[in-house]
Amino acid sequence: MDTDTIVPVTHILPLVTIRRDRKLPVPGTVLVRVNERVQAMDVIATADVAPRHLVIDLTRALGIDAASAAQQVKRQPGDRVEAGDILAGPIGLTRRAVRAPADGVVVALSGAKLVFEASGEPFELKAGFPGVVTATDGTWSATIETTGALIQAAWGNGRQDFGVMRLVSRGPGDRLQTDQLDINLRGAVLIAGVCDHPAPLHQATELSVRGVVLGGMSAELIPMTQRLPYPVLVTEGFGPLAMSSAVYTLLSTNAGREAALDGRMADPFTGEKPEIIIPLPSPQRTNLPQDIIPLAAGVRVRVLRKPYHGSVGQVREVIPSAVSYPSGLLAASVKVDLDETGPRVVPQADIEIIQ
Hints:
The protein is mainly beta. It folds into three domains: about 10-45 and about 145-280, 3-Layer(bba) Sandwich (Glucose Oxidase, domain 1); about 50-120, CATH 2.40.50; about 300-355, Roll (SH3 type barrels), CATH 2.30.30. The chain is about 10% helix and about 40% strand. It has helices at about 60, 65-70, 200-205, 220-225, 245-255, and strands at about 10, 10-25, 30, 35-40, 45-50, 50-55, 80, 85-90, 95-100, 105-110, 115-120, 120-125, 130-135, 140-150, 155, 160-165, 190, 195, 210-215, 230-240, 260, 275-280, 300-305, 310-320, 325, 330, 335-340, 340-345, 350-355. Strands 2, 4, 13, 14, 15, 16, 17, 18, 19, 20, 21 and 22 form a twelve-stranded mixed beta sheet that branches. Strands 1-29-23-24-27-28 form a six-stranded mixed beta sheet, with no helix packed on it. Strand 27 (about 335-340) and strand 28 form a beta hairpin. The protein is elongated and about 85 Å long. The mean pLDDT is about 90.
């Protein structure tokens, strides 16, 4: 069997060079130059988002018949208006009127129907973390580089932010509870263990936190966390999974430092994952992370499925022939010395390499 089998790599690195491309969703204008230093919340590029078209029923809005409603129109096709400007009316004792829902243009009138084009909100692309611009194409993207700690997670809710990390758990498997959260954590990035109830996350919203990092989280909380205004990152997976010792140590020893949270969804095709970046000074040049590492003896891995889900260990041997499992499955496998349970045989499809 080929000992150079490639498996996914997750980075948990205390000091490395981090280089990320920041891209606009549509062509626009990049505002920064090569070698320019930027901060996390700096806007580095902007673009105009496509406008929305709305059909406004003047009959219903004014509460009168179509012929009368058409006579109340105050704007003509081509007129540009600002949000709140009157489009039709006012009428009656209550001075009922139809107002522009946003800045935009009156596109057309057809009887008592008015077509309105609402201007799209400008899209602002932020740097995400402090660093130096190393490349830009002027219209789509800019590349930003820094040195620091890099921790890639298993899941994120799609949001991004930047703030000072505060440790709220007593250990990597500690359950996050509301009594751990108080006003002193306002605006912080919270580092916790396991969350299995929505109450602490709602309380974190009231504290205007900048993010929450968990080891494990109940899968039932996924829909709720996707509606939260701050990023939520889960480092190990769904269920009562304690944060791995490597991740917990790296985060806890850097508590009090600023961190960038990127809760993007994992993409198996590009290799992108939700991640935490902790900018750190470095007196010397550091290397970029390795995105491809051959599976071989001595490599650190993490198990992704039961019964050893979340366990970390070192590969002792890449088994040369397929292994038969009780389920009847034949699979390429490795023997791993797991930190907590000792030697175990695990399918290659159930592991990821930890760098």
